[in-house]
Design goal:
Blueprint lengths: L1 H20 L6 H8 L3 H7 L3 H26 L3 H18 L2 H10 L1 H29 L8 H15 L12 H16 L2 H15 L1
């Protein structure tokens, strides 16, 4: 149990620094200093920074999957699911430094593969189910292709973190993602869906 606490603490310490400065610029020395522990202690659990990054990504993806399942189980309909996912995304997207995505893709291919597998196996699959359910409930336009739109939406999120398209100096990652999400939500909804979307947004705005 004590070992798991130490591992979780190291992962959290790495996450704190990676989110603020990117992965490449953070060293194991930085993490040790941030946590007030020796580097030797960190190396008892992780042989190098790459192994720590992989463990961090796996933990975050597991947390995200649990959060998605919780939102789905607690929402009464597809529109509620969409609104609740928008709310929980706000905190996550506002904290992510786009450089983290770039660094993971370029310097930590195994961690990036974990993310890509999660995208294909969990995100796209969950979104396909959500869209199909929304069509049955009458909130999502019946003519849309759930397989195509699910893939487009997940790729859209990734593109929002592309610093060549949206330089950090000019764009807030959360504002970019919020615009994408609003555009997507209103684009896929029927009139019935629009009304419920507006109703929920007014409630949350109040």
């Amino acid at each position: 149990m004590k070992q798991n606490v130490q591992i979780d603490r190291i992962i959290q310490g790495g996450e704190d620094l990676f989110l603020s400065a990117g992965i490449k610029s953070v060293t194991m020395d930085d993490i040790a200093k941030h946590l007030g522990m020796s580097k030797k202690t960190i190396y008892q659990f992780f042989k190098d920074k790459n192994e720590l990054v992989i463990a961090l990504v796996k933990k975050k993806l597991k947390d995200d999957e649990e959060q998605i399942c919780s939102i789905i189980s607690q929402s009464g309909n597809v529109i509620e699911e969409m609104i609740n996912m928008m709310k929980c995304s706000e905190d996550m997207f506002s904290r992510i430094n786009p450089i983290v995505i770039h660094d993971m893709q370029k310097y930590h291919p195994e961690a990036w593969r974990e993310f890509q597998n999660f995208k294909a196996d969990v995100l796209i699959h969950t979104l396909e189910e959500l869209l199909s359910k929304g069509i049955q409930q009458g909130y999502i336009r019946p003519e849309i292709n759930a397989k195509i739109l699910a893939r487009m939406r997940v790729s859209q999120v990734e593109m929002g973190f592309n610093t060549q398209v949206f330089p950090v100096a000019d764009f807030s990652p959360w504002k970019v993602q919020y615009q994408f999400l609003e555009h997507f939500n209103y684009g896929i909804c029927t009139l019935k869906g629009h009304k419920l979307l507006n109703k929920h947004k007014n409630i949350s705005d109040e």
